[in-house]
Specification:
This protein is mainly alpha-helical. The protein has two domains: about 30 residues; about 425 residues, Sodium/glucose cotransporter (Up-down Bundle). Helix content is about 75%, strand content about 0%. Helix 5 packs across helix 18, helix 15 packs across helix 23 and helix 23 runs parallel beside helix 27. It is globular, with a radius of gyration of 26 Å. The relative contact order is 0.17.
Length: about 650
């Protein structure tokens, strides 16, 4: 035990020591690019070294870390497994843009915080101890043994693969985003570089290596987030008490929001945006004629710019217009629709943190409650989180590990929420009201990044930045916090190390879950049950590598909205596993037929709702979004329909076809 706490202490001291050394390097004038790259390389190499030292071929060690991890360390590993790229680099931007309670039509960031943390309470009270007592290797393994059914094992294995694969692609996309933005490498090369670190952690030692790697990653995640929040708090209010600084800034933000609401220029900006929306609707109704008119206008503007020897950037901006480029009519209409949706979202977002009252407030409330429901039940049913109970030393340790995990998660979420308030204070006080030709330095830097974080559009042509003129990217805003708040660039590298740790830790757990479902549940338990232990471990390692490469290839070809796809994975997990776990572990009348029906119905309903409301599917079949939404709920809230369907079918078919195993 002292040796294990020493590992935690070494991790913490390494973060502090590296930060101090690189802070001195910054004072000496070392390039920010070198500092950021150094942080990333040290992180990847450090995790790989831990994975190499924890290598094993023993099945009990590889699959469940020997079932002897005590509560504090299992809690740290669970927290790192949980705090994904969406939590770490997406939540602050979401809270800044959407506020805590949303815009009256869509859920705000508070729904994510409540849903994610509430799910751990459900997991602790309902499943943790019973899962540890099952002494299984995977969730499909546990369900297959519980109901004595190969069909239940197979379907739950495919359910685990589906949920985990969606989540995994989002994590690898986040890894590529962090490494490419901070190191200067291409997006694809950044992903494959980080992939090497993932494989060295999970390939050699399985759950044993992942567990101890995640313990260190938890230290890095929490330490980097807390350090950044304390630095920003000191910069803003002159003290290190982060929640108090956020409260002080929130008072000023709401006061500034009232001043902005009374500004007459806000009204002219809104009118200009409404006019653009009407113009877009006209173009969508007649795309052929609209394209010809817009091309003629663009041709005249380009000719004028070239005659005036305008900058190449201004010329390229006009040439990037969808109407000028030689793209199909459907893609052109889709580009106009995306612009329309973006403008509507900007118009509806709250300025401050008091919330808004709109005609669609009831819809916004329904979406918020639905999202909280899906995230809570999904958190309690994610396969890569549930298997953490199998590695705990006892049922009591399984429950206590979730308490420890919540402590670390709460610290990160509190800092992320506070940072959103302090960042919005800077946006409203420094950017709103500034002249477009005299922007703050940080605004210019965010606009000129290779992946721009800030977009400005002077709607009323007054040369002054209004709140409606601003669009800030959600997913990777955290990486720009040091620039916005004017603190040392060392914190950029530190927060990148934390973001990378969050994405890597979750990706490790997801990879192992998918590989084990393929090898242990779909192959050895049903096709080759007589295979040796060494063969089982080796096949899992090979499949783990293949899954990692496949997920990386998908992420390179299909950039994703991290928060959207993660939320979809939660709905699928909630619909597929929560009904069968709740009924199977707490109701003796649950039959094998009922278990299979619960999973099929839950996953089927949820998957249908997500797919039929995906814009690509709607465009292909000519569906109208307003007609495919049920109760006006967003597609990532599909679990609202999938979970009740699973529970009802589980109970009904258990009554019709009793018999567990």
């Amino acid at each position: 035990m002292p040796r294990r706490w020493g590992l935690v202490l070494i991790g913490l001291m390494s973060v502090v020591g590296l930060s101090l050394c690189l802070w001195l390097a910054d004072l000496m004038g070392v390039s920010k690019g070198y500092i950021n790259t150094f942080f990333l390389l040290v992180s990847i190499v450090g995790y790989a070294i831990i994975g190499m030292f924890c290598r094993t071929t023993q099945p009990e060690e590889y699959f469940v870390a020997g079932r002897r991890i005590t509560a504090p360390f299992n809690g740290m590993a669970t927290a790192a497994d949980w705090m994904s790229a969406a939590s770490f680099i997406g939540l602050t931007g979401l809270l800044l843009n959407e506020g805590y309670i949303g815009d009256g039509l869509h859920a705000g960031g508070l729904a994510y915080v409540l849903g994610w943390t509430g799910g751990f309470c459900l997991l602790c009270f309902l499943f943790a101890a019973k899962l540890q007592q099952a002494q299984a290797i995977t969730i499909p393994d546990m369900l297959g043994n519980l109901f004595g059914s190969t069909a239940v094992r197979w379907f739950s294995a495919w359910g685990a693969i589906l949920c985990s694969s969606i989540y995994l692609v989002a994590q690898i996309y986040g890894i590529g985003l962090v490494t490419s933005m901070l190191s200067g490498l291409t997006f694809e090369l950044g992903m494959f570089l980080a992939l090497g670190g993932i494989l060295l952690c999970s390939f050699l030692g399985g759950m044993r290596a992942i567990t101890w790697t995640q313990v260190v990653q938890c230290v890095v995640i929490v330490a980097s987030m807390v350090a950044l929040a304390v630095a920003v708090s000191w910069r803003e209010q002159g003290h290190p008490v982060v929640p108090v600084a956020a409260w002080q800034d929130m008072l000023q933000v709401n006061e500034r929001a009232q001043q902005i609401a009374l500004d007459t220029d806000v009204h002219t900006t809104t009118l200009a945006m409404e006019q653009r929306l009407r113009h877009l609707d006209e173009k969508i109704a007649d795309p052929v004629g609209a394209r010809e008119v817009e091309r003629q206008l663009l041709a005249r503007q380009l000719a004028r710019l070239k005659a005036e020897n305008a900058s190449l950037g201004d010329i390229q901006r006009l040439e990037s217009n969808p109407a000028w480029r030689d793209i199909g009519e459907e893609r052109l209409v889709e580009a106009w629709r995306q612009e329309r949706d973006r403008i509507q979202q900007i118009m509806n977002r709250p300025v401050g943190f008091k919330g808004v009252q709109t005609p669609g407030a009831n819809r916004g409330l329904f979406n918020t409650l639905a999202l909280v429901f899906c995230l809570m039940l999904g958190s309690a049913a994610l396969p890569h989180i549930l298997v953490r109970s199998f590695s705990a030393a006892s049922p009591r340790h399984a429950e206590l590990s979730l308490v420890w995990a919540l402590l670390f998660i709460a610290a990160v979420y509190l800092c992320a929420s506070s940072l959103a308030v302090m960042l919005k204070h800077s946006v409203l006080t420094e950017l709103v009201g500034a002249r477009l030709d005299q922007l703050p330095d940080w605004a210019e830097q965010l606009k000129l990044r290779r992946l721009p974080l800030l977009f400005l559009n002077d709607w009323n042509r007054d040369g002054i930045v209004q709140f409606g003129d601003i669009r800030i990217a959600n997913d990777y805003l955290m990486l720009a916090v040091p620039d916005i708040m004017r603190i040392s660039p060392v914190f950029t590298g530190l927060i990148a190390a934390g973001a990378l740790a969050a994405a890597l830790s979750t990706a490790d757990g997801l990879l192992l879950t998918i590989a084990n479902a393929l090898s242990h549940d779909l192959y050895f338990q049903t096709v080759r049950p007589e295979a040796s232990a060494v063969r089982r471990v080796m096949l899992s390692k090979v499949l783990l590598m293949l899954v990692a490469l496949t997920a990386t290839w998908v992420a390179t070809n299909q950039p994703v909205d991290i928060l959207f796809w993660v939320a979809c994975a939660f709905s699928l997990a909630a619909s597929t596993f929560f009904p069968v776990l709740l009924l199977g572990l707490h109701w003796s009348g649950m039959s094998r037929t009922g278990a299979l029906a619960a999973m099929v119905a839950g996953m089927g309903v949820s998957l249908y709702y997500i797919v039929v409301n995906y814009h690509g599917v709607q465009k292909y079949f000519g569906l109208v979004p307003e007609q495919t939404l049920w109760l006006g709920l967003e597609p990532f809230s599909a679990g609202v329909f999938g979970v009740p369907a699973g529970l009802m079918c589980g109970v009904l078919f258990s009554w019709l076809r009793p018999g567990r195993g």
